[in-house]
Structures are given as structure tokens and as C-alpha cells.
Amino acid sequence: MNTINLNGEWKLTGGNINCKVNIPGDFHSALISEKIIPDPFYGFNEKDVQWVGKTDWTIEREFDFTVEEKSETYLELNEADTFFTVFINNKKCASGNNAFLRHRFNVTKFLQNGKNTISILFESAEKKSIEYSKKLPYKIPYMKYDVYSPARNMARKCQCNGGWDWGPCIMVSGIYGGISLKTVSTGLFNSVHVEYSHKENDWIADVSVSFDSIKNTKKTFVFSIAGNDIETSHVSKNISLQKGKNTIQAKLKVSNPSVWMTAGELKESGLSENTLYDLKIKIEDEESCQLTQKIAFNTLKVISKKDKAYGKDGRSLYFENNGRKIFAKGSNWIPTDSLPSRLTFKRYEDLLKSAVAANQNCIRVWGGGYYEKDFFYDLCDKLGLIVWQDCMFACSLYPVTEDFLENVKSEIEYQVGRLQPHACIGIWCGNNENFGALNWFPESNQNRDRYLVDYDRLYVDTIGKKIKELDPSRIYWPSSPCSGPDDFADNWHADSMGDMHYWSVWHERKSFDAYLSINPRFVSEFGYESFPSLETIRSFAQEKDFNFTSKLMEYHQRSPSGNSIMLENFSRYFCFPNGFENMIYLSQVQQALAIKTAVDWWRSLKPHCMGALVWQLNDIWPGPSWSSLEYNGKWKLLHYEERKFFDIVYQPLYIKDNKLYAFFSNDTQEKLSVNLKISYLKFDGSNFKQEIILKKNVSPDTTIYLFEEEIDTENKNNYFIYAEYQAVSEKGKSYQGCNTVFPGLFKHAEIENPEIDISFIEQNDYFEIKLKSQKPAFFVSLDNDDLPGIFDDNMFTLLSGQTKIIKFVPAKKTDLKTVIKKVSLKHLKSTF
Ligand code: BMA
């Protein structure tokens, strides 16, 4: 096989624009680098670049080609977004209308020896979608946000390009996965499918590969699995290929491979990565014609059974890895940038490593973005992150015309074929919130049956059937949230079955204790907003805009009345902070507390509740949102708090109905002997009452109830509760942690000024920040302004007289003077 790589510089024309574009890449990025349009993230610029998405664009270039006898040449495009037509030597030779496909077109007859030209017209997806929607027999409604692209649900492209409640409307187009010409004398590999079985540690990989042959011929296919710690396994197969699609199978035996572990299991084993193996399939006498795939050995599955829960009909939902029940702790992943040219391996690696560093073991690839890049799944395989994979349909109804369904079938065929071999894929899910969406629109409320039939045709008859056919080894979950393949409750409020999206605390503006009013099985979405740090705000705003309700701050806030919801809760829980910086800090404290309140409760419900996925992990642009990681990857206080409440050993504490409840979670595979101390302290640091000392043994993978006690409501503003533990496992591993709860409201607590001394010490490649407090200090937080790096703890309680040393590891080498200048300290009392 000969490949001509057509990536690189192309000419871009559209309207009266004529400039250069780098492929792979998007056209907005080209216009930005050519200074034809401004950075759409800055100020109100988003409004000024909407014309780009409404314009048709053409890219073109030349290339040399040598015609080869008895061969066929295929033009391959990956992630061509969306409606495109290809011309080679000015002859139309191919077209496409799905950004989620790998397109392969036989263009042999259009090529000539020597110089050739290729041009590709990309019609505005917005224009095409509006045209398409007008041809439909009835309206197909979709969720619209502040700045949106009409009829976005008609196009098979990233749905949130059309604007969302955390991101801008930037209707990108281009080729994001690369373009090449492949000349073959036998054919092309399509995809590989692998299923595993094992006895003890002798594994069998059942491999079947799909191969497109250009002729009838006999070939030998060589299968192999290799890796550092195994003996390479080989199987050769002599095959009579038919012209067209062929499936070739082989069983490969592998002894004692390292078995795939989730991130928590890796941490427990002192490992940072899974061992991946190289599966290779090639044609014996055609070295260049091969397919390689990273694989790992595991049996990861979903258990979902009907049961009785809290006296209600229930349905469990949890992951089981190699026979072990896993409490899913993680986040929802959205596209990492509005501009595909900026989607780099480094950014993905940083975000996913940050997720693991916060003790997450599960990532949901949300249905309004992309089927992610191969390296995303390679990273999840390596890092032990279970992937909940949505199909790319979100917050909308969709057409079910024949051509649309055919288009979707090819999309699912390609994407499931591409992703199936990844060990990290835990569950296939039909869509995001589209069953619930049937209740959101006047059209579907007036004529539910019509849209319900459409729903069934798309997610059950088309997508569901296809996925079950292509990957029977994994469960297909029709929608998120839903109460099960055969139940249709409102899983924004019904808690006993399947997965929930719990949004009552944010969208319904309820207080944090509403989280304790539900007993969910698996919460796949819940979230609370905060503002990003000042360094991120400076990237899109000027000092004059530094106010929660400035026109620009409200413009970058895409959740309806998001800023006022945050302010409303400030007044519900806190003394009102003075100044913009304190409001940013407090918004992050508030966000972290909201999510912690939920997780402390839901972890105490294990094994009834077996999952908590926070909305959202990352940001697509700089602005207020539900993320725990800012647009530039910086950790918000929520992410630091996640590292504590998602840890494999943790002590959930909560107050419910004026009672303190204490639990202990051991998500390790070893028994722990635990020493616990619960202190009741006044805000001057003295004891409010006698502490409680407990010694407990906690079995593996178990959460136990410790005790409950009435809180002293009379004095609830005069003391706080500080719990700390040391735990040792059977094999001598030690764990420690602490947790603080206030019996009363923070705003009424008699908090004193703690007078914290801070000093900095330079070490080899990190810095120590020494803190000593005279009085108890709360939500003590360090911020590294424009100095990327991570603290080994943040947002913590400092007891009076306690000295705490925080390690700051800068992303790049820096000096003490810079650290002292750029690292600042805040705590609750300092905000008012
Ligand atoms: C859910 C998600 C997203 C949305 C989020 C916050 O609906 O599925 O669509 O951004 O809530 O509103």
C-alpha cells in the first residue's frame, strides 16, 4: 500500500477571502491566524464571527501522483465537517454529509500521472441544516441557547458547535482528522473487534478483522499480540478473499498478561498506568498493509438488575471490572475547545491526568460533542478511566427520514468498529437527555406519539439494534438519564432505577441539602457553577468588566441567570464577600461544597448508589461554568476537593435533619484498621465538647456506618466538627484524611480572624508553602496566578496552632521570588 499524505498547507477561499489553511484543521483557526477574524473567545467577539459559519468555504491544493497497474486508489478523509464535495482535476468525485465518519472514496479513475489538483467545497452546515429542516413534514425541535445556530439537529456534526449553556456558538468546518490517498493492490483494513475470555490467567483474545478487498484472491493474514511481559502470540490464516467486505477471525492465546485495572485499582497497586499490548494483523507478503491496535485484557461490564430499593421498584446500575464492583467516581467530558485545530494530545493528556489525580475512575463522553480522538481512548486505556460513551445526540429531537437513519447507521458502524477494541469502554449510551426532551417542546407535548415513535425508531430500532449487533459484549443503555431499557420514568427526579441527572440544586435553585433527599443508583450528571480564576478572566475581559453582573461577565455566562443563582446561594450560606476576587474565590468554595455535600451522601449509600459523575470536567472556552478544570486546565477548588471526596479511602460526613452522620468508605481490596477522632471545636480553637475516638476494622470494598448524633442546635453557630482518621491496610499501606462540617450556616458562625503566617521554601523542583494559623481557618486556599502548577492540597481547614506545609509543583521551572509574587492565600474570614 502506498500512501500520499495530503495534510499540510492548502488554499482557503470563501466569500471574498483568499488565504492559507493548515489541514488537519478548522477554517476559523485559519482566519484567526491570518488576522482576518479576532479571537472569538475575547470580549463579545463571538458575535462578530458568526458569518464564518454561514459561509461556504473551498480548500484546494496540488499533488503529484503515479498511476499503478492492478491497483485502486482511495481518498480517505477523517472528521470532514460536514457537508463537502470533492473535485479532482475539476471533476466531482465524492461528497459527504457526516463529520463523525471516516470517508473512503475510490478515486482511481479521476487521477492522472504527474500533477493533479484537488479541491473540496464545504457548504455552510447552518445553511444546509435550515434547508433540510424546511423539507421535513413536521418540525423537529431542539434546545437553543443564548447564541445558537438554527436547526443544528439536522447535521451530523458536533452539536455544541451550535452554542450551549457553557459555550459559544462557533459553527466550525474543516478536516480535523487528516486526508490522504491510499493506493492498494489487495485492499484496506476497516476495523478490528476483540472479545476476551480467560481461565485463571490464561486468556483468549477472540479477534475478528474486517477487510475490504478490491478483488478475489488468496492471502495469508498474520495475527499477533505482543508486549513486554508476555510471550508473543501468533496465528496465521490462509484466506480466500472475496471482492468487497471480508471478515477474518482468529483466536490468540496469551498467558499471564497484566490485567486491565481502573484508576483506583492502579493507585492501590502503586502503579500509574496499565500495560497495553500490541495487536497486529497484516498480510504476509504486503508489509505495509496492516492494522495495529493497542489492547488490554479485562472483563469490564455493567450490571443492571431489577430489585427493590427503599420499598420502591428499583434497578441497579454499576460497573464490574474483572468481577469486582466499582463505584464510579468521575466527570462528564465536553469538547476541549470550540476550535478543533486546538485539540492537541497534550491538552487531552493533561486533562485526563488531572482527572486521575483527583481520584476519578470514570469519564462520560457526553452526547453533544465528538466521538473522541483515538488518543483519548488510548489515554483512558492507559490511565484506567472507564468510559461511558454516549452517541452524539443531545438535548433535542432528531429527524428519522430514511437518509438520516442510513447516515446514522454508517456513523454507528464506523464509531463502534473504531472504539470496540478499547478496554476502557464500559457502556454504550444512545443519547444525552433525548428521552426527557420529549417533554421539553410544545410540538412533542402536543403530539407525543409522533415523536415517541421517532424516538423509538432512532434509538431502539436503528442505533440500539446496530450496537447490539456490532458489540454484544457490552450493554446498550438507550439514553442518559433513563431508568432502564424498558422503563420510561423522569430520571431527573425518580431515583430508584438506572442513572439520574440531578439538577434540582442548580437549575431548580434548591439548597444543597436537596442532594440528601434522593437515594440514587447512579448519578451520571449533577453540577454547580463557579467562576474561573482571575488569570482566566483576564484572557477574555478587561479590568472594567471585573464584576459578576457586568455586561461582558453576563455575556460569557451561558446558563440562564447563572450568575444570580451563585449570588443567591452566597446569601443563603455565606457572609457576602467584598470585591470581585473574593467573589470568584467564594464561588469556587461554594461549588466545591455543593458537590461534596452530594458525594458524601451518595458514597454513604454504597452499594445502593454506585456512581457519581460530576457535570463537567473541562471547559470549551474561558467563562463561568460547572467545570472543575478551567479552559487552560487550571484546577478549580472543586477539583482539589474531588481529590479528597473521590479518594479510595474516605470518611463521608453529613448533617441531615439536625443530626450528624459519620461513615467510612474503604474502596480498596484490603481490610483496613482505622483510628478515627471526631473533635468539636469552638472558633477560638478550644474544645466545645469531648471528642469521640473510634477504632474500626473496615472490610474491603465496603462503606460502613459509624454513628449518628443530634447536633447542638442551640449552639450550632459556636462550634464546628473536625474529623480525622489514620488507616492501615493488612499489607501495611497507610491512609489518612480529614473532613470538616459546620452544624450551622457559615454566615452565622462566629468565625474569628485566624492570622495565618505564610512562608515559602525552595526545594529541588518544587516549593514548600508553610502555613501556621493562630485560630481555626476555613477553606484555606492557595491560588497560583499565571504560574501553572499544582498544590498537593487546597481548600482545607487549619486548626489553631497547626502548621501545615503545602507542596507546590510548578509546571515549568521557576524561582522563589516568582512563587512568592504569584501565589496568594485566601480563607473564608478573609472574604468579608
Ligand atoms: C445537562 C447536560 C448538558 C447541560 C448541562 C447543564 O443537560 O446534558 O446538556 O449543559 O445539563 O445545564
Briefly, what is this?
By secondary structure, the chain is an alpha+beta fold.
Structure notes:
- A hairpin with a 2-residue loop joins β26 and β27.
- The protein is globular and about 90 Å long.
- α6 (345-357) packs parallel to α7 (374-383) and α14 runs parallel beside α15.
- The relative contact order is 0.08.
- The chain has 16 helices and 50 strands.
- It starts with a strand and ends in a 6-residue tail after the last strand.
- The strands form 14 sheets. It has a six-stranded antiparallel β-sheet. Strands 32-31-30-29-28-35 form a six-stranded parallel β-sheet.
- It is an alpha+beta fold and 832 residues long.
- Bound molecules: beta-D-mannopyranose.
- Beta-D-mannopyranose binds at residues 164-166, 368, 394-395, 432-433, 525, 615.
Number of strands: 50
How big is the Rg? Answer: 28 Å
Bound molecules: beta-D-mannopyranose
Percent of residues in beta strands? 35-45%
Large-scale geometry: globular
Round the mean pLDDT to the nearest integer and report it: 97
